């Protein structure tokens, strides 16, 4: 992992995690096997245990002992803390959990756009009914650091990448892929990307037919991207595996999946060429 520079260590920032409060989620989960979703509470908070653990790892990385102690509470207690910020439990909300170095936790709550609750579960196929997001590649390179591995309020690199991609609003159905100095895809500016690829192999052992088939892959954390919650969910349940993906390997027009803790899983399409004026 990259080291934290003195300027970064002294910078005023908070650790954050964004997730969806979805009242319909518990009903959707009742039809799922108990080991297919990582929340024994099956609460309306999407992937809540992963968000708590993600924040805890960030606090430990930055040496925030007070924040780490707060985040070591059990998931049920954490959910009760979040409950106090929900204005109406019958509606979906976008929560932005913000924790400072002293362990103070605030939650910013905004109305969430309606989605099919099934999109919060792992994709079972490429849904052809939804319009894919436009996915482009950042024209500049981003150096990996703890501020790309962990989600914080220090997001200037991501903001700049979105501006270069002409994404002007969080509501725009568009994403830009962040690229490290080696030309590897790190992540999306607000999502984890998944690409359909044949599994790579570094051995001479002949792969069986199943392994030779294309499968979904996502960039490894060694490429410098964020340890996202939906990414962890997809890996844990076998939807995808890790594989480094370079910009040179992307195919113009290819379809991909994107995911994050507010929208779940949704389609994207890679656009490498500038659209005609």
UniProtKB/TrEMBL annotation:
Record's signal peptide: none
InterPro entries: Aminotrans_IV, Aminotransferase-like, BCAT-like_C, BCAT-like_N
Organism domain of life: Eukaryota
Gene3D superfamilies according to UniProt: 3.30.470.10, D-amino Acid Aminotransferase, subunit A, domain 2
Database matches in Pfam families: Aminotran_4
Chain segments carrying region Disordered: 204-227
Sample GO molecular function, one term: catalytic activity
Name of the molecule in the record: Aminodeoxychorismate lyase
């Amino acid at each position: 992992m990259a080291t934290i520079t003195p300027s970064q260590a002294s910078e005023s920032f908070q650790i954050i995690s964004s997730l969806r409060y979805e009242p319909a989620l518990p009903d959707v989960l009742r039809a799922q096997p108990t080991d297919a979703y990582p929340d024994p509470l099956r609460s309306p908070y999407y992937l809540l245990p992963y968000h708590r653990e993600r924040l805890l790892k960030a606090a430990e990385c930055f040496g925030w002992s007070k924040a780490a102690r707060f985040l070591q509470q059990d998931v049920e207690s954490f959910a009760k803390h979040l409950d106090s910020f929900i204005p109406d439990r019958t509606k979906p909300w976008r929560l932005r959990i913000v924790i400072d170095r002293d362990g103070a936790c605030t939650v910013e709550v905004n109305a969430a756009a309606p989605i099919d609750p099934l999109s919060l579960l792992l994709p079972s196929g490429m849904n052809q009914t939804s319009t894919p997001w436009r996915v482009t590649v950042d024209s500049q390179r981003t150096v990996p650091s703890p501020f790309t591995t962990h989600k914080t309020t220090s997001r200037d690199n991501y903001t700049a990448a979105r501006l270069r991609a002409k994404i002007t609003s969080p509501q725009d159905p568009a994403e830009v892929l962040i690229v490290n100095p080696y030309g590897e895809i790190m992540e999306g500016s607000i999502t984890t990307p998944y690409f359909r690829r044949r599994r790579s192999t570094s051995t001479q052992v002949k792969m069986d037919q199943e392994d030779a088939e294309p499968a979904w892959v996502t960039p490894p954390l060694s490429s410098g991207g964020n340890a996202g919650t939906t990414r962890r969910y997809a890996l844990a349940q076998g939807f995808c595996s890790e594989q480094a993906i370079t910009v040179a390997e992307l195919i113009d027009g290819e379809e991909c999946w994107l995911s994050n803790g507010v929208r779940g899983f949704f389609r994207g399409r890679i656009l490498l060429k500038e659209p005609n004026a």
